[in-house]
Write a structure and sequence with these properties.
- The protein is built from 13 helices and 16 strands.
- By secondary structure, the chain is an alpha+beta fold.
- The protein has a twelve-stranded antiparallel β-sheet with strand order 5-4-6-7-9-8-13-14-12-11-10-16. The protein has a four-stranded mixed β-sheet with strand order 1-2-3-15.
- It starts with a helix and ends in a 15-residue tail after the last strand.
- The protein binds zinc ion.
- The site of zinc ion has 7 residues, from loops.
Length: 451
């Protein structure tokens, strides 16, 4: 660290994180400018919220509780790919990928994870088509042709289109479309840029009531690795199939209180034609000083005893300057885009993310936001995941001042999660090789891509 960098760190320190005599902590996020105050005395509430009116579940509920459930696959658009268990493969517990299954084969295997288009895209196919002249890639066009030429596939596409038209308040019916109209209206299903990665379970296998929802922490370590690897590969695929995509936003909203449409575990990937305001903010700040990611990330966490866990290629810590109490999981790889990393490096991030989800519990609404370096940008942006706990709702004060009141201080969140991590490891729920709290003994500058 140069002399100038040290001076900058010292003078900027108070600006970003300041503890007042009464215990109030005034924070400003160095990468987003978000202003947050933690006010003492408001943080004693439980993180989770009791499930309202749980009722017993039947076997049918496990496979048909919502449109993402296994018995309702025809309610979502044609499936891009799925992971199925491979018990007889070389590696027990491994998964293999099946791509572009015809509609009448969707029920012949059990999908552990499915990649499907979002029926209601944030950026529509028409947006890409009209503004960027995007057309279906050859691979997608061939898939569309074969899907629509199959009777079961045609019926599936018409059914999903009708549901979409109805939701949009249109009286249009898919059966009245001619061949060209059907190809046009169904194009987003085959070449759109907003995908979901949906997990198999709605409820955990041992759930007896509707309160037993299966979140990320209820997956096994290997299932969670497969979930992350599939999301990483879908990110790379969205870039490859749309040259006008400048960024692929990856996120997970867990529970309806955090913005999910169903309480059924899924991630979302959205290709966009900007790199995004938050990336622009952060990149502007770190250009010429990429060590900032270390300084205000793991180095800060070391100094303030906020490190939760680490393994050979990733680190997890409680962070500051977010609207909600947050944990961040950073890859320590030299590379800053997950699809270029080797599988051990991706698994390492997956294992820590999984561990933190286990510790937080399925009853806490969360937003998981992934960040990586946009391909056109040269400044490093190490791959990291921000996990926000939606334990409070911003109200009038926040709207009027743009200062967010965070009810749980970083130290208090860390103190709540550490014992849960130890318990989870004791119970055999975490991946091998995870060090917790003081065991981490991290050096400074652990994120190699940020040097
Ligand atoms: Zn479901």
């Amino acid at each position: 660290m140069s002399f100038l960098t040290i001076v900058t760190a010292l003078t900027e320190g108070g600006q970003y994180y300041r503890e007042l005599p009464d215990g109030t902590i005034k924070q400003m996020n160095p990468f987003s400018g978000v202003q947050v105050w933690t006010v003492p005395g408001r943080g004693a509430r439980p993180l989770g919220q009791p499930f309202v009116n749980p009722r017993p579940i039947s076997d049918a509920d496990r496979v048909s509780a919502c449109s993402f459930c296994a018995d309702r696959v025809l309610e979502t658009p044609p499936e891009k790919s799925r992971l199925v268990g491979d018990p007889f493969g070389e590696m027990r517990g491994a998964f293999r990928t099946l791509r572009h299954l015809p509609a009448d084969e969707l029920s012949s295997t059990t999908a552990e994870f499915r990649r499907i288009p979002n029926l209601f895209e944030i950026l529509t196919w028409q947006y890409w088509h009209a503004n960027h002249g995007a057309d279906l890639p050859e691979d997608a066009r061939r898939w569309q042709e074969s899907y629509l030429s199959d009777l079961a596939g045609l019926a599936h596409v018409r059914r999903v289109l009708d549901a979409k038209f109805a939701a949009q308040g249109l009286s249009l019916r898919a059966s009245r479309l001619d061949a060209a109209g059907l190809r046009r209206e169904s194009a987003p299903f085959f070449g759109g840029g907003h995908d979901l990665i949906v997990a198999r379970r709605h409820y955990t296998d041992d759930a007896t009531t509707t309160a037993g929802l299966a979140g990320s922490g209820q997956l096994s370590v290997s299932e969670h690795r497969a979930f992350i690897a599939m999301t990483v590969s879908a990110t790379a695929d969205l870039y490859a199939s749309n040259p006008k995509a400048r960024y692929v936003a990856v996120f997970q909203n867990w529970l309806q209180a955090a913005g999910a449409s169903f309480d059924h575990l899924h991630k979302q990937l959205v290709a966009i034609d900007e790199i995004g305001a938050s990336n622009e903010w952060a990149l502007e700040k770190v250009v010429g000083d990429p060590y900032m990611f270390n300084r205000w990330g793991p180095d800060f966490a070391i100094d303030h005893h906020l490190v939760l866990a680490a393994n050979d290629h990733a680190v997890a810590f409680v962070t500051f300057g977010h609207r909600y109490p947050s944990v961040e999981i950073w890859s320590t790889s030299r590379l800053d885009q997950p699809w270029r990393m080797d599988s051990q490096e991706v698994d390492a991030v997956s294992d820590l993310l999984h561990a933190v989800h286990v510790a937080i519990g399925a009853d806490v609404p969360t937003n998981e936001e992934w960040h990586h370096r946009p391909p056109e940008v040269e400044t490093p942006m190490p791959w990291h995941v921000v996990l926000k706990l939606r334990v409070s709702n911003p109200a009038g004060f926040e709207g009027g001042t743009k200062i967010y009141i965070n009810t749980v201080s970083p130290a208090s969140l860390c103190a709540r999660l550490l014992p849960r991590l130890f318990d989870a490891r004791q119970a055999g729920r975490l991946a091998e090789g995870i060090r917790i709290g003081e065991e981490c003994d991290l050096p400074r500058g652990v994120i190699q891509a940020a040097h």
